[in-house]
TrEMBL record:
Region Disordered: start-end pairs: 610-630
GO CC terms: cytoplasm
Lineage: Eukaryota, Viridiplantae, Streptophyta, Embryophyta, Tracheophyta
Main location: cytoplasm
GO terms for biological process, alphabetical: protein import into nucleus
Organism the protein comes from: Aegilops tauschii subsp. strangulata
Keywords: Cytoplasm, Nucleus, Protein transport, Repeat, Transport
Molecular function in Gene Ontology: small GTPase binding
Official protein name in the record: Importin N-terminal domain-containing protein
Span of domain Importin N-terminal: 23-89
Positions of HEAT repeats: 160-193, 380-418, 421-459
Subcellular location: Cytoplasm; Nucleus
Length: 713
């Protein structure tokens, strides 16, 4: 087998695609035989070209899990020795890494069984070798072995600490320093208690910081990036691993994130560390008096402008705003004063970026610091309303954003200022900038929703302005404009009747749009019809609702989650105003709600495959009977579907509450869904499930002797 396998390995590395495919198929067939192990070992040690040796190691890693139990003792011993020799003697970095990966897999089975007692002494010896390659690969193995035999190392951590510290400070090799950083990070998850182990990790921090500063000074951002990853792990660890090093980590992170000469990626990592500290170690920041120093860096970062070639999600101003927001939520009493001072000093700054940052900072902290705004609301409004008239668009845009945040988070106090706020918003709706207009519609929507009868003096100019805008604006502005119309209708209630016909006629035009780029507007229009219906009441709406209901139902054929979400909300509103007359629509709308409730929410995992896929081995690494144990890196969920599920869950409750006995045929399936959703991972869905269960119980009381059989488990 050895000779034929050698030819196949060489053929697989050829540029000819047909030759590669033929070789891959034959290698896959040969790899099912346990005798492939000694053959691969032979090529790992004797092949002349590094690519062939690396490929042999990759294949060993892929197949060793299934073949290891079948190997006789002498073959196991030969394999282990060959791997040791490869790690210490091979002159190719990639081959040594690939061999180390095989060692990690074998160790999972061999070390607990007592079949490789010499492995750890060998690694300790290598980690102190005068040869850079040996030190590096030993540290790499320490890292990878934590994933397979991590608990084995716990009793050796005291012996490892001086070695890791020495390697962190290795002045001759950046590769060793990087490997040492990774090794330190890999051991963090095994520290779940106090005592000497915690102190040991605290002792690492100064060395990590020193290495990172040196590397950043030399332009080696990769090493500093690894350091931030370790700080991330230290912060999130349940063990108290930070201690007094919090101040040093904050100081280092602030140095990096405020240095505009550094790459945005590394600055972003530094900002993220501050964010994590705020979330998980807020008491540490208070104790060490670090809140003001952090804000003194974060607030000025709001003045930065991202370069055109930079990812806007990584922009320093956006990231700083997120940190300030997080600080306001977690530390409101300590944050409001410094932010207000920053805004007061800079809202008339000669540089428009500072004026923009001043009002942005107030908007950002309005949610978390809402209680502290009460005594200073007039002062803060003065800043924002003055900025809304600024000659610079960026400042006006920030002011309209801040005003929207105030309207959303500073209720009900903000409503008492409607006489000064509403005229300013109306003026902003005439702004030449579409960005300012869009944010002003958002502010108007948030402000008007809870005004009640106070909106009446402004109703005529508001509706006239909004209707004109809806007729003449681009699509994105039409969407926010419709949101504002909905809020005005909700506040005006019966007073909206004179405007209802005109608005509903306009919404009808939006509710028949079918192009993908128009579906968000269709969703908004569907929402507005439901709100208007609630405002003007059953008497005026019942006769004209059927075409709107028909259009709403047809929207489910367009496969757009947001449209389905808003349509479920529309049906909830219609059920509420029609009450028992809504029963005629149940056969059409209940299955739609069930369908949304049963949607796959898109949970997905990101798999980390440590093999040499980037080195051209992707074909071989995709065996049909792959024995790898890939690592799950993260889970992602489609949030749009979550919103749709929540809306559909809410609709089920409204349908049952308002149609009562007519809902009897759907009770059993509804209960199954709601009980399932009451344990859903996302709180929005859980909340709607509990509320809808209450509505279902109310409906059941109106259905005499209706048996429902359902298991709660």
């Amino acid at each position: 087998m050895a000779q034929s396998l050698e030819l196949l390995l060489i053929q697989f590395l050829m540029p000819d695609n047909d030759a590669r495919r033929q070789a891959e198929e034959q290698i896959r067939r040969l790899a099912r035989d346990p005798q492939v192990v000694p053959a691969l070992v032979h090529h790992l040690r004797t092949a002349k070209t590094p690519n062939v040796r690396q490929l042999a190691a990759v294949l060993l890693r892929k197949k060793i899990t299934s073949h290891w139990p079948k190997l006789p003792p002498h073959a196991k011993a030969s394999l282990k020795q060959a791997l040791i020799d490869s790690i210490t003697l091979d002159n190719s970095h990639l081959v040594r890494r690939a061999s180390a990966n095989v060692v990690s897999i074998i160790a999972k089975y061999a070390v607990p069984a007592g079949e490789w007692q010499e492995l750890l002494p060998f690694l300790f010896q290598c980690s102190q070798s005068p040869q850079e390659e040996h030190r590096e690969v030993a540290l790499i193995l320490f890292s990878s072995l934590t994933e397979t035999i991590g608990t084995t190392f716990q009793s050796h951590l005291n012996d490892l600490q001086p070695i890791l510290l020495k390697c962190l400070q290795d002045e001759t090799s950046s590769r060793v320093r990087i490997a040492a950083l990774k090794a330190v990070g890999s051991f963090i998850e095994y520290v779940n208690e106090g005592g000497d182990i915690v102190k040991m990790f605290r002792d690492f921090v100064p060395s990590i910081l020193n290495v990172s500063r040196q590397c950043l000074a030399n332009g080696d951002d990769d090493v500093a990036s690894i350091a931030f990853e370790i700080f991330d792990e230290l912060i999130e660890s349940p063990a108290p691993l930070l201690g007094d090093s919090v101040r040093s980590i904050v100081q280092f992170s602030l140095e990096v994130c405020s240095n505009q000469d550094m790459e945005i990626n590394i600055r972003q990592q530094a900002i993220q560390i501050i964010s994590w500290l705020v979330k998980f170690k807020a008491s540490f920041l208070k104790k060490n008096k670090l809140i003001v120093p952090i804000l003194q860096v974060m607030c000025p970062l709001l003045t930065e402008t991202a370069n055109e070639d930079e990812d806007s999600d990584l922009a320093a101003d956006r990231s700083a705003a997120e940190v300030i927001d997080t600080m306001a939520i977690n530390l409101p009493r300590h944050v409001f004063g410094p932010v207000l001072e920053f805004a007061s000093v800079n809202f008339r700054h000669v540089n428009p970026k500072y004026r923009e940052a001043a009002v942005t900072s107030l908007g950002v902290v309005s949610e978390g610091c809402s209680e502290h705004f009460k005594d200073k609301l007039e002062e803060c409004l003065k800043v924002v309303l003055e900025a809304l008239k600024d000659q610079e668009q960026m400042v006006r845009g920030a002011a309209s954003f801040a005003l929207g945040q105030f309207a959303e988070h500073l209720q009900p106090e903000i409503l008492s200022h409607y006489e000064s706020v509403l005229p300013c918003i109306l003026n902003a709706l005439e702004d030449p900038s579409d960005e300012v207009k869009e944010k002003s519609y958002y502010a108007l929507a948030a402000f008007c929703e809870d005004m009640g009868e106070d909106i009446l003096p402004y109703l005529e100019p508001l509706i006239c302005r909004l209707v004109i805008s809806l007729q003449s604006s681009p699509r994105n502005l039409q969407e926010t404009c419709m949101s504002a119309i909905g809020s005005v209708a909700a506040a005006a209630e019966q007073a909206f009747i004179p405007y209802a016909e005109k608005v509903l006629e306009m919404m009808k035009g939006f509710m028949v749009l079918t192009k993908d780029e128009d579906l968000c507007a269709r969703a908004r229009a569907t929402e507005v019809v439901g709100i208007v219906a609630m405002a003007v009441g059953r008497t005026r709406m019942e006769a004209i609702l059927p075409p709107f209901i028909e259009a709403a139902i047809s929207g489910f054929g367009l496969d757009y989650s947001e449209l389905r979400e808003y349509t479920h909300g529309f049906f909830s509103n219609v059920a509420e105003i029609l009450d028992d007359s809504f029963s005629q629509y149940l056969p059409h709308v209940v299955p739609l709600a069930f369908s949304s409730c049963n949607l796959d929410d898109g949970s997905a995992v990101d798999i980390d495959d440590a093999d040499g896929v980037d080195n051209g081995f992707s074909g071989v690494s995709s065996d049909d009977d792959d024995d790898d144990e890939p690592r799950v890196r993260n889970i992602s969920v489609r949030t749009g579907v979550l919103d749709e599920k929540a809306a559909a869950t809410q609709a089920i409750g409204f349908f049952a509450l308002h149609t009562k006995s007519a809902y009897a045929p759907y009770l059993e399936e509804s209960l199954k869904i709601l009980i399932k959703h009451s344990g859903y991972f996302h709180e929005d869905v859980r909340l709607q499930a509990i509320i809808s269960l209450k509505h279902i119980l109310t409906a059941l009381r109106a259905i005499p002797a209706h048996p429902v059989s359902i298991s709660l488990y």
